[in-house]
Amino acid sequence: MNVTKNKILSVFFQYSIPSVLGMLAISSANIVDGFFIGNYVGDFGLAAINISLPIFSFLFGFAFMLAIGSSVVAGKLIGEGEIKKASIIFTKTMICVTIFSFIICSVLFLNIETILHFFGADEYLTNVAIQYLSIMLFFIPFLMIGIVLDYFVRIDNRPNLAFIALLSSALINFILDWFMIVYLQKGIFGAALATGISQLTLLIILLPHFFSKKATLRFVKPIGSYIQIAKACYNGASEFVNEISIGIMTLIFNYVMIKNFGVEGIAAFTVINYLLFIGIMISFGISDSLQPIISKNFGAKQSKRIEEFLKLAFISTSLVGLIMISLIIFIPDKLANIFLEDTNHKTKQLVLNFATFIWIVFLFDGINLVISAYFTAIHKPLQSMIIALSRSFIFPVFFIFTLPFLFDLDGIFIAIPMAEFITFIIAVILYRKFNPRKIT
């Protein structure tokens, strides 16, 4: 498929559908983890996962920064006909992510207990989280490599293969979660082992593509300076900042929730994160699929096509938002019951308190994500970073410390929706300044 010439609707759906289904596969894997842990391990299991999130945010942030930044550069080079240079970028990126992931995960493994105490975990929660993290840190390097491969496979015109890899990983995770947690009763340790093994699937399915005849990108001799990768990382820095910001924001929210509501507060926040995760990952799948499309059309100077792709993305993410709003408003109790046992009355009530306000997020998050992805694709990392920081760190943290003075404990629940709304205003202003016609 030639994304700079083929029919716009056809290109959009052939890229967005596999991307959305892939993100749904990822979402389902996390939702399945939450279901089994919430129902067969309990509140402390959910809290242990949430207290570990800042570590995952840092590691995934680095992988996304490399994957998105480098793949966009490679996509632009392919659009310009520079296949050899694109393959060099791909090879250097794989070298960087492999070396970094194994080194940093080893360092984190040796300092797990210290890090968890720093995150505010008490002795019991630390012991539960260590069971989870000690296994996950062994497998995460393979997931980080798989994430980078996933982006380059899509740039290499194989979005369906990327989806198959993500779907296979999710299915294996579901089967292994049941086997480890329910059948063998291995608790949080079994959940980590199931997730880790399923993540290897990405590597096994995606890596052979780059040795096949269908591949445009190939492993080549990594000649030249690695400054190219540093520049690519800068272009993808908004994704790193976004993930890190989510980790820091989660850390602060965990502190506020445990201070005001105890461990049940962290568990409730974890359940809300699962609900947010479903809708946001679908919108992220749509916005993420734009990056290879827009980067190639940007290289070919096709501003009108970029506008049309963006319109389709805005409409699609808005529809997703309306569906999520309907579910959260009309059946919040049933959504909470998916992750919590009937005896967890306090945690369930906190989830319902959150749900009263959290639906507002879905009015704005899809458009924010699309505009942020657009800026990354056209090599405007600063603008993308502003949006990412605003929605995932600056405003959530600001509002969680200020709104309780005005609305008491309800201010905690309003913080994230208010942050998304203010970010929406900023994103629209930036988009008007750097719309496709102006930048090409």
TrEMBL record:
InterPro entries: MATE_fam, MATE_MepA-like, MATE_MepA_subfamily, MdtK-like
Protein's UniProt keywords contain Transmembrane helix: yes
Residue ranges of the TM segments: 12-32, 44-68, 89-110, 130-149, 161-181, 187-211, 232-253, 265-288, 309-331, 351-374, 386-406, 412-431
Cellular compartment(s): Cell membrane
Entry superkingdom: Bacteria
Molecular functions (GO terms): antiporter activity; xenobiotic transmembrane transporter activity
CDD domains assigned to the protein according to its UniProt record, in alphabetical order: MATE_MepA_like
Membrane topology category: Multi-pass membrane protein
A single GO cellular-component term on record: plasma membrane
Coiled-coil spans in chain: none
Example of a GO biological process term: response to antibiotic
Xref: Pfam families: MatE
The entry's keywords: Antibiotic resistance, Cell membrane, Membrane, Transmembrane, Transmembrane helix, Transport
Family label: Belongs to the multi antimicrobial extrusion (MATE) (TC 2.A.66.1) family. MepA subfamily.
Name used for this protein in its record: Multidrug export protein MepA
